[in-house]
Amino acid sequence: MKIYIANFEVKPMNISFNIQKAIHQLDLAVEKGADTVVFPKGFLFGAETGILKNAQWAKNEYNKNIDILFEKAVELNLNVICDIATDTDFKSVYFSDKNISIKDSCKINNINIFCANNSNILFKNMHKLAKAYDVIIINWMEKTVAGQKDLWLKAIQHASRVYGTVFIINTAGMGYTTHPDFFACMRGIITAKNTNVATDYRSVLNCENIFEIEKHDRIILKDDTDYYSITQFDVFYNQNPLIPTNVNVKKYCLDLFDMQSASLANRLKNINCKNVVLNLSGGLDSTLALLVCVNAFDMLGFDKNGIHIVTMPGFGTSETTKGLAYDLCRCMELGLQVIDIKKACTEALMCIGHDTTTPDVTFENVQARMRTLNALNLANKINAIMIGTGDLSEEALGFSTYGGDHLSSYNVNCCVSKTVIRTMLKYIVELDLFKNVKEPVYSIINIPVSPELIPYGGRILQKTEDILAPYKIIDFFIYCLVVTKITPEEIIQKAQYIFEGKYSKQYLREKLKLFYKKFSVGQFKRSCAPECANITHVSLLDSKTYYPSDASVDIFLQNLK
Fold it and tell me: Best exposed site among 124, 258, 293, 554 by fewest CB in 10 Å?
Protein backbone atom coordinates (compact mmCIF):
# COMPACT_ATOMS: atom_id res chain seq x y z
CA MET A 1 0.00 0.00 0.00
CA LYS A 2 1.47 3.31 -1.10
CA ILE A 3 -0.21 6.34 0.47
CA TYR A 4 0.01 9.83 -1.01
CA ILE A 5 -0.74 12.76 1.30
CA ALA A 6 -2.50 15.47 -0.70
CA ASN A 7 -0.45 18.60 -0.10
CA PHE A 8 -1.84 21.90 -1.36
CA GLU A 9 -3.14 25.23 -0.09
CA VAL A 10 -6.88 25.70 -0.33
CA LYS A 11 -8.85 28.91 -0.77
CA PRO A 12 -11.67 29.33 1.78
CA MET A 13 -15.13 28.69 0.28
CA ASN A 14 -13.74 28.51 -3.26
CA ILE A 15 -14.90 25.01 -4.20
CA SER A 16 -14.12 25.32 -7.91
CA PHE A 17 -10.50 26.26 -7.16
CA ASN A 18 -10.10 23.60 -4.48
CA ILE A 19 -11.53 20.75 -6.57
CA GLN A 20 -9.15 21.53 -9.43
CA LYS A 21 -6.23 21.47 -7.02
CA ALA A 22 -7.49 18.19 -5.56
CA ILE A 23 -7.80 16.55 -8.98
CA HIS A 24 -4.25 17.66 -9.75
CA GLN A 25 -3.14 15.90 -6.56
CA LEU A 26 -4.59 12.65 -7.91
CA ASP A 27 -2.46 13.02 -11.05
CA LEU A 28 0.64 13.62 -8.90
CA ALA A 29 -0.19 10.54 -6.83
CA VAL A 30 -0.27 8.38 -9.95
CA GLU A 31 3.07 9.82 -11.09
CA LYS A 32 4.60 8.77 -7.76
CA GLY A 33 3.15 5.26 -7.94
CA ALA A 34 0.64 5.66 -5.10
CA ASP A 35 -2.54 3.59 -4.83
CA THR A 36 -4.25 5.62 -2.06
CA VAL A 37 -4.68 9.39 -1.57
CA VAL A 38 -5.57 11.09 1.74
CA PHE A 39 -7.27 14.50 1.86
CA PRO A 40 -7.84 16.56 5.04
CA LYS A 41 -11.31 17.14 6.44
CA GLY A 42 -13.35 19.95 4.92
CA PHE A 43 -10.75 20.59 2.21
CA LEU A 44 -13.26 21.80 -0.39
CA PHE A 45 -14.52 24.53 1.96
CA GLY A 46 -11.31 25.39 3.80
CA ALA A 47 -13.30 27.17 6.49
CA GLU A 48 -15.92 26.83 9.18
CA THR A 49 -19.12 27.25 7.20
CA GLY A 50 -20.73 29.71 9.63
CA ILE A 51 -23.96 31.03 8.13
CA LEU A 52 -23.97 28.15 5.62
CA LYS A 53 -23.74 25.45 8.31
CA ASN A 54 -27.38 24.45 7.84
CA ALA A 55 -27.66 25.36 4.17
CA GLN A 56 -28.36 22.07 2.43
CA TRP A 57 -27.57 23.49 -1.00
CA ALA A 58 -23.99 24.29 0.13
CA LYS A 59 -23.52 20.73 1.41
CA ASN A 60 -24.94 19.40 -1.84
CA GLU A 61 -22.40 21.49 -3.75
CA TYR A 62 -19.61 20.07 -1.58
CA ASN A 63 -20.75 16.47 -2.13
CA LYS A 64 -21.31 17.00 -5.86
CA ASN A 65 -17.65 17.92 -6.21
CA ILE A 66 -16.61 14.97 -4.07
CA ASP A 67 -18.41 12.80 -6.65
CA ILE A 68 -16.31 14.46 -9.37
CA LEU A 69 -13.18 13.60 -7.40
CA PHE A 70 -14.39 10.03 -6.99
CA GLU A 71 -15.00 9.61 -10.71
CA LYS A 72 -11.47 10.82 -11.42
CA ALA A 73 -10.10 8.42 -8.81
CA VAL A 74 -11.89 5.47 -10.42
CA GLU A 75 -10.49 6.51 -13.80
CA LEU A 76 -6.96 6.50 -12.31
CA ASN A 77 -7.54 3.32 -10.28
CA LEU A 78 -6.91 5.13 -6.97
CA ASN A 79 -8.40 4.77 -3.50
CA VAL A 80 -9.39 8.12 -1.99
CA ILE A 81 -9.81 8.86 1.71
CA CYS A 82 -11.62 12.13 2.41
CA ASP A 83 -15.08 13.16 3.65
CA ILE A 84 -18.55 14.25 2.67
CA ALA A 85 -20.86 16.83 4.17
CA THR A 86 -23.52 15.36 6.46
CA ASP A 87 -26.50 16.88 8.25
CA THR A 88 -24.40 17.94 11.22
CA ASP A 89 -20.79 18.29 10.09
CA PHE A 90 -18.14 16.64 7.92
CA LYS A 91 -17.98 13.69 10.30
CA SER A 92 -18.41 10.79 7.92
CA VAL A 93 -15.31 9.59 6.16
CA TYR A 94 -15.55 8.82 2.48
CA PHE A 95 -13.61 5.86 1.14
CA SER A 96 -13.52 4.86 -2.48
CA ASP A 97 -12.25 1.58 -3.83
CA LYS A 98 -14.37 1.50 -6.97
CA ASN A 99 -17.31 1.64 -4.56
CA ILE A 100 -18.52 4.49 -2.39
CA SER A 101 -19.05 3.74 1.28
CA ILE A 102 -19.68 6.16 4.07
CA LYS A 103 -17.93 4.77 7.11
CA ASP A 104 -14.84 5.32 9.22
CA SER A 105 -12.92 2.14 8.39
CA CYS A 106 -11.95 0.01 5.43
CA LYS A 107 -9.46 -2.60 4.25
CA ILE A 108 -7.00 -1.87 1.46
CA ASN A 109 -4.43 -4.48 0.35
CA ASN A 110 -5.36 -6.55 3.41
CA ILE A 111 -4.44 -3.64 5.71
CA ASN A 112 -7.09 -2.60 8.24
CA ILE A 113 -7.52 1.18 8.25
CA PHE A 114 -9.40 3.52 10.56
CA CYS A 115 -9.92 7.19 9.75
CA ALA A 116 -9.90 9.57 12.72
CA ASN A 117 -11.40 12.89 11.72
CA ASN A 118 -11.97 13.95 15.34
CA SER A 119 -9.28 14.21 18.02
CA ASN A 120 -11.63 13.41 20.91
CA ILE A 121 -12.77 10.18 19.27
CA LEU A 122 -9.16 9.11 18.68
CA PHE A 123 -7.67 9.88 22.08
CA LYS A 124 -10.66 8.72 24.14
CA ASN A 125 -10.72 5.40 22.27
CA MET A 126 -7.01 5.01 21.54
CA HIS A 127 -6.59 1.59 23.23
CA LYS A 128 -9.44 0.02 21.27
CA LEU A 129 -8.60 1.64 17.93
CA ALA A 130 -4.82 1.17 17.97
CA LYS A 131 -5.24 -2.47 18.94
CA ALA A 132 -7.78 -3.16 16.18
CA TYR A 133 -6.26 -1.34 13.19
CA ASP A 134 -2.94 -1.56 11.35
CA VAL A 135 -3.12 2.03 10.13
CA ILE A 136 -4.91 5.04 11.57
CA ILE A 137 -5.42 7.97 9.21
CA ILE A 138 -5.64 11.34 10.98
CA ASN A 139 -7.26 13.90 8.69
CA TRP A 140 -9.19 16.07 11.12
CA MET A 141 -9.98 19.78 10.94
CA GLU A 142 -9.35 20.77 14.56
CA LYS A 143 -9.21 24.22 16.13
CA THR A 144 -5.62 24.40 17.35
CA VAL A 145 -3.75 26.57 19.83
CA ALA A 146 -0.03 26.93 20.51
CA GLY A 147 1.51 23.85 22.14
CA GLN A 148 -1.37 21.55 21.20
CA LYS A 149 0.36 19.84 18.27
CA ASP A 150 3.26 18.85 20.54
CA LEU A 151 0.91 17.11 23.00
CA TRP A 152 -0.96 15.33 20.19
CA LEU A 153 2.25 14.04 18.63
CA LYS A 154 3.63 12.79 21.96
CA ALA A 155 0.44 10.81 22.56
CA ILE A 156 0.44 9.37 19.02
CA GLN A 157 4.13 8.43 19.23
CA HIS A 158 3.50 6.59 22.49
CA ALA A 159 0.54 4.69 21.04
CA SER A 160 2.55 3.70 17.97
CA ARG A 161 5.35 2.28 20.16
CA VAL A 162 2.89 0.39 22.34
CA TYR A 163 0.63 -1.04 19.63
CA GLY A 164 2.85 -1.03 16.54
CA THR A 165 0.16 0.97 14.73
CA VAL A 166 1.15 3.23 11.84
CA PHE A 167 -0.32 6.74 11.90
CA ILE A 168 -0.65 8.71 8.67
CA ILE A 169 -1.31 12.39 9.37
CA ASN A 170 -2.79 14.96 6.99
CA THR A 171 -4.78 17.52 8.96
CA ALA A 172 -6.56 20.59 7.64
CA GLY A 173 -4.88 23.96 7.82
CA MET A 174 -2.92 25.19 4.81
CA GLY A 175 -4.77 28.13 3.35
CA TYR A 176 -7.73 27.65 5.70
CA THR A 177 -9.38 30.74 7.10
CA THR A 178 -7.72 32.29 10.17
CA HIS A 179 -10.67 33.82 11.99
CA PRO A 180 -11.94 33.14 14.54
CA ASP A 181 -9.98 29.92 14.86
CA PHE A 182 -6.69 28.54 13.61
CA PHE A 183 -6.43 25.14 11.95
CA ALA A 184 -2.84 23.95 12.28
CA CYS A 185 -1.70 21.57 9.57
CA MET A 186 0.41 18.47 10.29
CA ARG A 187 1.59 16.12 7.56
CA GLY A 188 3.63 12.93 7.75
CA ILE A 189 3.92 9.47 9.29
CA ILE A 190 4.54 8.03 12.75
CA THR A 191 5.63 4.44 13.23
CA ALA A 192 6.91 2.54 16.27
CA LYS A 193 10.49 3.41 15.29
CA ASN A 194 10.25 6.68 13.39
CA THR A 195 8.50 10.05 13.32
CA ASN A 196 8.49 12.10 10.15
CA VAL A 197 5.87 14.82 10.61
CA ALA A 198 5.99 18.43 9.43
CA THR A 199 4.22 20.85 11.77
CA ASP A 200 5.26 24.41 10.91
CA TYR A 201 4.22 26.57 7.96
CA ARG A 202 7.44 26.28 5.96
CA SER A 203 8.07 22.55 6.42
CA VAL A 204 4.46 21.53 5.72
CA LEU A 205 4.62 23.06 2.25
CA ASN A 206 7.71 21.04 1.35
CA CYS A 207 7.31 17.86 3.39
CA GLU A 208 7.59 14.30 2.15
CA ASN A 209 4.14 13.20 1.06
CA ILE A 210 4.33 9.58 -0.09
CA PHE A 211 4.72 6.58 2.22
CA GLU A 212 4.75 2.83 1.63
CA ILE A 213 3.04 0.62 4.22
CA GLU A 214 3.07 -3.16 4.37
CA LYS A 215 1.13 -5.57 6.51
CA HIS A 216 3.34 -6.33 9.49
CA ASP A 217 3.28 -8.35 12.70
CA ARG A 218 2.61 -6.16 15.69
CA ILE A 219 3.75 -6.74 19.25
CA ILE A 220 1.13 -5.15 21.48
CA LEU A 221 2.44 -4.11 24.88
CA LYS A 222 0.50 -3.66 28.09
CA ASP A 223 -0.68 -0.07 28.35
CA ASP A 224 -2.91 1.82 30.78
CA THR A 225 -2.17 5.35 29.49
CA ASP A 226 -4.99 7.88 29.61
CA TYR A 227 -4.38 9.26 26.13
CA TYR A 228 -7.04 11.94 26.35
CA SER A 229 -5.65 13.45 29.55
CA ILE A 230 -2.08 13.69 28.24
CA THR A 231 -3.28 15.76 25.28
CA GLN A 232 -4.75 18.40 27.61
CA PHE A 233 -2.82 21.36 28.99
CA ASP A 234 -1.80 21.12 32.63
CA VAL A 235 -3.63 23.52 34.92
CA PHE A 236 -0.97 24.78 37.27
CA TYR A 237 -0.55 27.99 39.23
CA ASN A 238 2.76 29.76 38.73
CA GLN A 239 4.10 33.22 37.93
CA ASN A 240 3.53 32.77 34.20
CA PRO A 241 0.48 30.47 34.00
CA LEU A 242 -0.38 31.47 30.44
CA ILE A 243 2.38 29.13 29.23
CA PRO A 244 1.33 25.48 29.84
CA THR A 245 3.61 23.56 32.19
CA ASN A 246 3.52 20.30 30.21
CA VAL A 247 5.16 21.74 27.07
CA ASN A 248 8.70 22.99 26.56
CA VAL A 249 8.74 26.78 27.01
CA LYS A 250 10.97 27.48 24.02
CA LYS A 251 9.00 25.14 21.74
CA TYR A 252 5.77 26.71 22.93
CA CYS A 253 6.96 30.25 22.25
CA LEU A 254 8.27 29.43 18.78
CA ASP A 255 5.10 27.46 17.96
CA LEU A 256 3.04 30.46 19.02
CA PHE A 257 5.17 32.76 16.88
CA ASP A 258 4.84 30.40 13.89
CA MET A 259 1.05 30.36 14.34
CA GLN A 260 0.88 34.15 14.56
CA SER A 261 2.92 34.39 11.37
CA ALA A 262 1.03 31.61 9.56
CA SER A 263 -2.35 33.16 10.42
CA LEU A 264 -1.23 36.47 8.91
CA ALA A 265 0.31 34.69 5.92
CA ASN A 266 -2.94 32.82 5.25
CA ARG A 267 -4.96 36.02 5.59
CA LEU A 268 -2.73 37.92 3.14
CA LYS A 269 -2.77 35.10 0.63
CA ASN A 270 -6.51 34.53 0.88
CA ILE A 271 -7.34 38.20 0.25
CA ASN A 272 -4.59 38.60 -2.39
CA CYS A 273 -2.78 41.34 -0.48
CA LYS A 274 0.97 41.96 -0.48
CA ASN A 275 1.13 45.11 1.65
CA VAL A 276 0.71 45.79 5.35
CA VAL A 277 0.86 48.96 7.45
CA LEU A 278 2.21 48.81 10.98
CA ASN A 279 2.38 51.61 13.53
CA LEU A 280 5.72 51.01 15.31
CA SER A 281 5.98 52.67 18.72
CA GLY A 282 9.21 51.08 19.93
CA GLY A 283 7.31 49.12 22.60
CA LEU A 284 6.81 45.38 23.20
CA ASP A 285 3.59 44.83 21.27
CA SER A 286 4.47 46.62 18.06
CA THR A 287 7.93 44.99 18.11
CA LEU A 288 6.42 41.50 18.18
CA ALA A 289 3.92 42.49 15.49
CA LEU A 290 6.77 43.72 13.28
CA LEU A 291 8.64 40.42 13.68
CA VAL A 292 5.43 38.54 12.85
CA CYS A 293 5.01 40.60 9.66
CA VAL A 294 8.61 39.97 8.57
CA ASN A 295 8.26 36.24 9.27
CA ALA A 296 4.94 36.02 7.40
CA PHE A 297 6.38 37.81 4.37
CA ASP A 298 9.37 35.47 4.45
CA MET A 299 7.02 32.45 4.56
CA LEU A 300 5.16 33.71 1.51
CA GLY A 301 8.24 34.85 -0.38
CA PHE A 302 6.82 38.38 -0.54
CA ASP A 303 9.01 41.44 -1.01
CA LYS A 304 9.53 42.88 2.49
CA ASN A 305 9.21 46.36 1.01
CA GLY A 306 5.51 45.58 1.27
CA ILE A 307 5.86 46.07 5.05
CA HIS A 308 5.15 49.79 5.47
CA ILE A 309 6.24 50.89 8.92
CA VAL A 310 5.09 54.19 10.35
CA THR A 311 6.10 55.86 13.59
CA MET A 312 3.97 58.78 14.77
CA PRO A 313 5.52 60.80 17.58
CA GLY A 314 2.97 62.65 19.68
CA PHE A 315 2.99 64.87 22.74
CA GLY A 316 4.37 62.20 25.07
CA THR A 317 6.62 60.14 22.79
CA SER A 318 9.99 59.57 24.48
CA GLU A 319 13.36 59.78 22.79
CA THR A 320 14.01 56.21 24.02
CA THR A 321 11.17 54.48 22.17
CA LYS A 322 11.56 56.71 19.12
CA GLY A 323 15.24 55.71 18.90
CA LEU A 324 14.44 52.02 19.37
CA ALA A 325 11.89 52.13 16.53
CA TYR A 326 14.62 53.54 14.27
CA ASP A 327 17.10 50.88 15.44
CA LEU A 328 14.69 48.02 14.75
CA CYS A 329 14.02 49.15 11.19
CA ARG A 330 17.69 49.85 10.51
CA CYS A 331 18.75 46.40 11.72
CA MET A 332 16.16 44.73 9.47
CA GLU A 333 16.86 47.03 6.53
CA LEU A 334 13.28 48.28 6.49
CA GLY A 335 12.10 51.77 5.72
CA LEU A 336 10.47 53.89 8.41
CA GLN A 337 8.02 56.68 7.64
CA VAL A 338 7.68 59.42 10.27
CA ILE A 339 4.38 61.27 10.67
CA ASP A 340 4.41 63.85 13.43
CA ILE A 341 0.84 63.98 14.74
CA LYS A 342 1.17 66.88 17.21
CA LYS A 343 -0.17 69.56 14.84
CA ALA A 344 -3.11 67.43 13.68
CA CYS A 345 -3.95 66.51 17.28
CA THR A 346 -3.86 70.16 18.36
CA GLU A 347 -6.29 71.07 15.58
CA ALA A 348 -8.58 68.18 16.50
CA LEU A 349 -8.60 69.29 20.14
CA MET A 350 -9.35 72.89 19.15
CA CYS A 351 -12.30 71.71 17.03
CA ILE A 352 -14.04 70.38 20.14
CA GLY A 353 -13.16 73.34 22.34
CA HIS A 354 -10.34 71.69 24.28
CA ASP A 355 -7.59 73.99 25.59
CA THR A 356 -5.02 71.67 23.88
CA THR A 357 -2.81 71.49 26.99
CA THR A 358 -4.77 69.84 29.82
CA PRO A 359 -3.53 66.22 29.86
CA ASP A 360 -6.94 64.60 30.37
CA VAL A 361 -8.37 61.47 28.76
CA THR A 362 -9.46 63.46 25.69
CA PHE A 363 -5.93 64.79 25.25
CA GLU A 364 -4.61 61.20 25.36
CA ASN A 365 -7.25 59.55 23.18
CA VAL A 366 -7.00 62.09 20.36
CA GLN A 367 -3.40 60.99 19.83
CA ALA A 368 -4.29 57.28 19.69
CA ARG A 369 -7.14 57.94 17.27
CA MET A 370 -4.98 60.14 15.06
CA ARG A 371 -2.39 57.36 14.73
CA THR A 372 -5.05 54.86 13.73
CA LEU A 373 -6.65 57.30 11.29
CA ASN A 374 -3.33 57.90 9.54
CA ALA A 375 -2.48 54.19 9.44
CA LEU A 376 -5.87 53.23 7.98
CA ASN A 377 -5.71 56.04 5.43
CA LEU A 378 -2.23 54.98 4.38
CA ALA A 379 -3.43 51.37 4.08
CA ASN A 380 -6.20 52.55 1.73
CA LYS A 381 -3.72 54.51 -0.35
CA ILE A 382 -1.34 51.58 -0.96
CA ASN A 383 -3.89 48.73 -1.03
CA ALA A 384 -2.71 47.31 2.30
CA ILE A 385 -4.19 46.07 5.55
CA MET A 386 -3.37 47.66 8.90
CA ILE A 387 -1.88 45.27 11.45
CA GLY A 388 -3.20 45.48 15.01
CA THR A 389 -0.81 45.11 17.93
CA GLY A 390 -3.00 45.11 21.08
CA ASP A 391 -2.29 42.14 23.37
CA LEU A 392 -4.38 39.89 25.64
CA SER A 393 -3.48 41.81 28.81
CA GLU A 394 -4.76 45.03 27.24
CA GLU A 395 -7.84 43.30 25.79
CA ALA A 396 -8.80 42.00 29.23
CA LEU A 397 -8.64 45.47 30.78
CA GLY A 398 -9.96 47.43 27.82
CA PHE A 399 -6.68 49.34 28.02
CA SER A 400 -6.92 50.82 24.54
CA THR A 401 -8.59 53.80 22.92
CA TYR A 402 -11.94 53.01 21.36
CA GLY A 403 -11.62 53.88 17.69
CA GLY A 404 -7.87 54.27 18.17
CA ASP A 405 -5.38 51.48 18.83
CA HIS A 406 -8.47 49.35 19.48
CA LEU A 407 -8.96 49.13 15.69
CA SER A 408 -7.07 47.47 12.84
CA SER A 409 -7.67 45.28 9.80
CA TYR A 410 -6.20 42.18 11.43
CA ASN A 411 -4.66 41.79 14.91
CA VAL A 412 -1.78 39.36 15.39
CA ASN A 413 -1.27 39.80 19.16
CA CYS A 414 -4.68 39.69 20.81
CA CYS A 415 -4.26 36.17 22.28
CA VAL A 416 -0.75 36.80 23.60
CA SER A 417 -0.24 38.41 27.02
CA LYS A 418 2.45 40.88 28.05
CA THR A 419 4.34 38.32 30.14
CA VAL A 420 4.28 35.81 27.29
CA ILE A 421 5.48 38.45 24.80
CA ARG A 422 8.48 39.21 27.01
CA THR A 423 9.28 35.49 27.12
CA MET A 424 8.74 34.96 23.39
CA LEU A 425 10.97 37.77 22.17
CA LYS A 426 14.06 36.25 23.82
CA TYR A 427 13.61 33.07 21.78
CA ILE A 428 12.54 34.75 18.53
CA VAL A 429 15.73 36.83 18.30
CA GLU A 430 17.74 33.58 18.33
CA LEU A 431 16.21 32.63 14.96
CA ASP A 432 18.47 33.22 11.96
CA LEU A 433 15.99 35.67 10.46
CA PHE A 434 16.18 37.99 13.49
CA LYS A 435 19.68 37.74 14.94
CA ASN A 436 20.46 41.28 13.74
CA VAL A 437 17.75 42.78 15.95
CA LYS A 438 18.81 41.13 19.20
CA GLU A 439 20.26 44.29 20.74
CA PRO A 440 17.30 46.66 20.18
CA VAL A 441 14.80 43.94 21.12
CA TYR A 442 16.51 43.32 24.46
CA SER A 443 16.49 47.07 25.08
CA ILE A 444 12.74 47.13 24.40
CA ILE A 445 12.17 44.22 26.78
CA ASN A 446 13.90 46.17 29.55
CA ILE A 447 12.12 49.54 29.28
CA PRO A 448 8.88 50.20 31.20
CA VAL A 449 5.60 49.72 29.36
CA SER A 450 3.99 53.10 28.70
CA PRO A 451 1.22 54.60 26.54
CA GLU A 452 3.43 57.72 26.17
CA LEU A 453 0.57 60.17 25.76
CA ILE A 454 1.53 62.89 28.26
CA PRO A 455 4.59 65.12 27.59
CA TYR A 456 7.53 64.85 29.99
CA GLY A 457 10.49 66.47 28.32
CA GLY A 458 11.18 63.56 25.96
CA ARG A 459 11.26 61.08 28.85
CA ILE A 460 8.80 58.37 29.90
CA LEU A 461 6.30 59.69 32.45
CA GLN A 462 3.43 57.19 32.36
CA LYS A 463 4.27 53.67 33.49
CA THR A 464 1.38 51.30 32.84
CA GLU A 465 2.32 48.90 35.61
CA ASP A 466 2.17 51.77 38.12
CA ILE A 467 -1.28 52.74 36.80
CA LEU A 468 -2.79 49.23 36.65
CA ALA A 469 -0.61 46.58 38.30
CA PRO A 470 2.50 44.59 37.35
CA TYR A 471 1.60 42.62 34.23
CA LYS A 472 2.55 39.33 35.86
CA ILE A 473 -0.26 39.97 38.36
CA ILE A 474 -2.72 41.03 35.64
CA ASP A 475 -1.94 37.91 33.62
CA PHE A 476 -2.30 35.74 36.71
CA PHE A 477 -5.75 37.28 37.27
CA ILE A 478 -6.67 36.57 33.62
CA TYR A 479 -5.67 32.93 34.05
CA CYS A 480 -7.75 32.55 37.21
CA LEU A 481 -10.78 34.26 35.65
CA VAL A 482 -10.72 32.39 32.32
CA VAL A 483 -9.36 28.95 33.25
CA THR A 484 -9.68 28.02 36.91
CA LYS A 485 -12.88 29.99 37.72
CA ILE A 486 -11.94 30.30 41.40
CA THR A 487 -13.49 32.93 43.67
CA PRO A 488 -12.00 36.42 43.94
CA GLU A 489 -10.87 35.76 47.51
CA GLU A 490 -9.20 32.50 46.44
CA ILE A 491 -7.39 34.42 43.68
CA ILE A 492 -5.85 36.70 46.30
CA GLN A 493 -4.75 33.76 48.45
CA LYS A 494 -3.22 31.99 45.45
CA ALA A 495 -1.46 35.17 44.31
CA GLN A 496 0.07 35.72 47.74
CA TYR A 497 1.47 32.21 47.70
CA ILE A 498 2.65 32.24 44.05
CA PHE A 499 4.38 35.61 44.35
CA GLU A 500 5.97 34.54 47.64
CA GLY A 501 4.50 37.29 49.78
CA LYS A 502 5.92 40.10 47.63
CA TYR A 503 2.52 41.80 47.53
CA SER A 504 0.28 42.42 50.54
CA LYS A 505 -3.25 41.09 50.68
CA GLN A 506 -4.60 44.64 50.68
CA TYR A 507 -2.56 45.56 47.58
CA LEU A 508 -3.75 42.45 45.72
CA ARG A 509 -7.35 43.11 46.76
CA GLU A 510 -7.24 46.66 45.39
CA LYS A 511 -5.61 45.54 42.15
CA LEU A 512 -8.13 42.73 41.70
CA LYS A 513 -11.00 45.19 42.23
CA LEU A 514 -9.47 47.44 39.58
CA PHE A 515 -9.03 44.43 37.27
CA TYR A 516 -12.69 43.41 37.59
CA LYS A 517 -13.93 46.96 37.03
CA LYS A 518 -11.83 47.45 33.92
CA PHE A 519 -12.68 43.95 32.66
CA SER A 520 -16.40 44.72 32.91
CA VAL A 521 -16.20 48.22 31.48
CA GLY A 522 -13.91 47.08 28.66
CA GLN A 523 -16.26 44.40 27.31
CA PHE A 524 -17.81 46.74 24.72
CA LYS A 525 -14.37 47.05 23.09
CA ARG A 526 -13.88 43.28 22.98
CA SER A 527 -17.35 42.90 21.47
CA CYS A 528 -16.26 44.81 18.37
CA ALA A 529 -12.56 43.97 18.28
CA PRO A 530 -10.74 43.43 14.96
CA GLU A 531 -10.49 39.98 13.41
CA CYS A 532 -7.71 37.71 14.58
CA ALA A 533 -6.89 34.03 15.07
CA ASN A 534 -7.60 32.29 18.36
CA ILE A 535 -4.20 30.64 18.92
CA THR A 536 -3.71 30.28 22.70
CA HIS A 537 -5.43 28.14 25.31
CA VAL A 538 -6.28 31.27 27.31
CA SER A 539 -8.04 33.97 25.30
CA LEU A 540 -11.11 36.19 25.36
CA LEU A 541 -12.34 35.40 21.86
CA ASP A 542 -15.10 32.83 22.24
CA SER A 543 -18.60 32.73 23.67
CA LYS A 544 -17.37 31.15 26.90
CA THR A 545 -15.50 34.32 27.85
CA TYR A 546 -18.20 36.78 26.86
CA TYR A 547 -19.49 39.18 29.53
CA PRO A 548 -22.42 41.57 28.87
CA SER A 549 -21.17 45.06 28.09
CA ASP A 550 -23.78 46.67 30.33
CA ALA A 551 -23.48 44.19 33.21
CA SER A 552 -22.66 45.22 36.75
CA VAL A 553 -19.29 44.40 38.26
CA ASP A 554 -21.04 43.74 41.57
CA ILE A 555 -20.95 39.94 41.29
CA PHE A 556 -17.16 40.09 41.41
CA LEU A 557 -16.82 42.74 44.08
CA GLN A 558 -19.29 41.15 46.50
CA ASN A 559 -16.74 38.43 47.22
CA LEU A 560 -14.06 40.99 48.00
CA LYS A 561 -15.83 42.97 50.73
Answer: 554
